[in-house]
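Aim 2 progress update. The chain analyzed this quarter is reproduced below.
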Amino acid sequence: MAAGGTKRRPAKRRLVQATAALAGLLLGGTVAATVWAQQLVADLSSHLIAITTGFTGTEVVLFGTTDGAGDVAIVVTGPRAPATVRRKQRVAGMWMNTDSLRFDQVPSFYTVAVSRPLDQLVGRPVLERHQLGLPQLQLAADTTLPPEELAAYRSALIRNKQRQGLYAISMGQVAFLGERLFRTNIYFPANVPTGLYNVEALLIRDGEVVSAQTTPLVVSKIGFSAEVSDFARNRPVTYGVAAVIGAIAAGWAAGAAFRRV
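Predicted structure tokens:
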């Protein structure tokens, strides 16, 4: 059994590395599909964030160049999934969940970095078209509500994500080295969700987005923690029984050790 597990871990690592390599290959195709006249070229210092047992968060550097003067905005979006916001109210002296609203396709991670404040770069239609900034982030609810109530649920959803560190509270800074070279650091916290991320770089001139490039980024668990996570997800009953047996054995061992002391 132990030998089988040892063989699976390298296989898992190879699978993750192959996924990251595939993401890198997709980058070439994506660049060709999205870069307009090569006005903007950007890349990441790493296309894989490997989450291990000791992972405490990390930074990835995005760097690139433009064909001339202009501003750059970077939008990082994590995998999308449904999210439910619940409202608590005091009922008979106790706080209880009384209402809820489900949002579809909510980005698990969202951050923006810009070379200048967005209100100095583009107008509201461009912000909305490219979902630049949290006020423009599209969050579709599965139920129709009055605008004021929908805005309250939306604000609560964003506030919760910011509290978890998954939505940036303030915009990052894109720094130019000279007129054409730029870079920015993108921080991913320890609780960053796994999956395929999109890192979009936009070149802005005269109030319009004139070029764009999308770069994939893979966030994946690897190593022993990933094996345990996969085992718990795929065999929950077996994992539960093993956890109980392990806890009993640990308690018995600790008791035996203290009796000898």
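The helical segments are 2-34, 124-130, 147-163, 224-234, 236-260. The first strand starts at residue 40 and ends at 44. These observations will guide the mutagenesis experiments scheduled for the next reporting period.
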